[in-house]
Specification:
Glycosyltransferase, repeat, transferase, protein farnesyltransferase activity, two-stranded antiparallel sheet, single chain, Protein farnesyltransferase subunit beta, globular, zinc, 43% helix, mainly alpha, 3% strand
Length: 509
């Protein structure tokens, strides 16, 4: 039995575990960790209700459930095979990609982000790749602003997003433990060359009058574009004055109508579509929730702009039994990447609902989990680990770099409790930032159990990690980069804006 020590004020990132010393533990196979509990019934049988109408969709769902059930119902959970996954993820960085990847020429920033972030989650120091990341990404900056997916390609907001995330990750690792002047030099080398003014002008070109964004000039409109644009603006330190625009040039405030546009994308099901009147989808749900939380306190931003009751209903329906993982849409199969796109939504929803609950009474209450963390962890460990490294969609599918990153991000969401900290102390520059709310997120290894309105109940959810070696790193629930990387980058921009001269920056560092 695992006993979790109480979460003390100011000690939110640590937990204490103790074991009863069960004599049977010594006889367990060394390649397995002990399961934190008996296999729940949900993993041992097919759903109680099956569709009598046999369609291609229903038959695929039944076949997938039967296949997955063979893995998730095992009595002992396999450990997270970090060493093999690290080897899989280092291969493209150290040895290069095969010719078969030529079709992903427009996804160069994505390949860098997926691999470096997944390696960071597994505890690897990816700072050694910082200089190479800069060398690879510099040629992708377009003369008219923004980043393309490959050399000489037109700018695309998703390419800009992945580029900035990669630089934030590698710079964070490369600057750890360095004196201030050397740390600033790392960030100057990584970010001072980005033409922020042209990038901002380009983002104005893809902003739509209805508050949405296109992915590029002449491209499609969707909430993913809006989310990527806001993340880029937040991580590159744009302030309110820069976003207001110049009225004499006909420029409108860049954030005008953005929240209202996101609000219009909630569907009749309760989920979020790519744009108004589109089908609800887990990836777009995450984009909208994270973007709204960049613009405000999650309690206010989500409850004001979305019907949370319907959203919770739709999100709950995305977690399947017996699989334990998530699907992205109604009547679709479980897929490991939705461990992030749906699993990542829950941290944001819980932060909003906990705040709403605590505002009703003088007693601080907590709703506890709205989803099954343990079921997702079981699905990831038993079904998503490739036998030769890397993580995947489901059994029978080959692992890849995309799924490796987003499955591990989902595992982080299940293993950590992410919450919004209103009491965080901020610099003057950050206080005036339109994205200041994105810098108030914290994590804890303790996951609280629900409390009643009278304050009874509570305690800590046990058994999420039987061995600390299976825990992955804490990630920022909005940016999807290591938690702490965002604040280091923000402090660099504050220093950079004080100097306000690129030549002086490079000279001083």
């Amino acid at each position: 039995m695992v006993q979790v020590g109480p979460l003390e004020e100011g000690e939110l990132s640590q937990w204490v575990t103790q074991t009863d010393g069960d004599a049977n533990e010594a006889s367990l196979p060394s390649i397995y960790q002990t399961a934190p509990e008996r296999v729940p019934a949900m993993h041992n049988s097919l759903p109680f209700i099956l569709d009598d109408l046999k369609t291609e969709t229903s038959q695929k769902q039944l076949s997938t459930a039967q296949n997955v059930m063979k893995s998730v119902c095992q009595p002992f959970l396999p450990p997270l095979d970090k060493a093999t996954h690290v080897e899989f993820l280092l291969s493209p960085l150290d040895e290069g990609l095969s010719g078969g990847f030529v079709g992903l020429d427009a996804s160069r920033p994505w390949l860098l982000y997926w691999c470096t972030n997944a390696l960071s989650l597994l505890g690897e120091n990816v700072g050694v790749y910082n200089d190479r990341a800069i060398t690879s990404l510099k040629p992708l900056q377009h003369p008219s602003g923004g980043f393309g997916g490959g050399n000489g390609q037109a700018p695309h907001v998703a390419a800009a997003y992945a580029s900035i995330l990669t630089l934030a990750i590698t710079s964070y690792h490369a600057s750890k433990g360095l004196p201030d002047n050397e740390r600033l030099a790392v960030y100057a080398n990584s970010f001072a060359w980005i033409d922020r003014q042209k990038l901002l002008q380009w983002l104005r070109k893809i902003k739509l009058p209805n508050g949405g964004f296109k992915v590029n000039e002449g491209g499609e409109e969707d909430v993913r574009a809006g989310y990527c644009a806001l993340v880029v603006l937040a991580l590159l330190g744009y302030n309110q004055e820069e976003l207001q625009g110049d009225p004499s040039l006909g420029e409108l405030p860049l954030l005008d109508g953005v929240a209202e546009y996101f609000k219009s994308c909630q569907t009749w099901e309760g989920g979020i579509g790519a744009k108004p009147n589109a089908e609800a989808h887990g990836g777009y749900a995450f984009c909208v929730l994270a973007a709204l939380c960049l613009l405000g306190d999650p309690e206010e931003a989500l409850s004001k702009n979305l019907d949370l009751d319907r959203l919770v209903s739709w999100l709950s329906a995305r977690q399947y039994a017996p699989e334990g993982g998530f699907s992205g849409r109604t009547n679709k199969l479980v897929d490991g990447c939705y461990s992030t796109w749906v699993g990542g939504c829950w941290s944001l929803v819980e932060a909003a609902v906990n705040a709403i609950e605590s505002g009703k009474t003088a007693v601080k209450t907590n709703i506890g989990d709205l989803w099954s963390r343990k079921a997702l962890i079981r699905y990831i460990l038993t079904c998503c680990q490739g036998p030769h490294g890397g993580l995947r969609d489901k059994p029978g599918i080959r692992p890849d770099y995309y799924h490796s990153n987003y499955v591990l991000l989902g595992l982080s969401a299940a293993q950590h409790y992410y919450y919004y900290d209103r009491s965080s102390i901020e610099s003057l520059a950050l206080t005036s930032s339109p994205f200041r709310h994105g810098y108030r997120w914290r994590s804890s290894k303790n996951v609280p159990k629900p409390t009643g309105n009278d304050g009874t109940g509570g305690g800590w959810l046990e058994g999420l990690v039987s061995d600390e070696s299976d825990r992955v790193g804490a990630q920022h629930p909005l940016f999807n980069i290591p938690l702490g990387a965002e604040s280091q980058l923000q402090s660099w921009w504050e220093w950079f804006n004080d100097v306000s001269d690129e030549e002086a920056v490079l000279t001083e560092t």
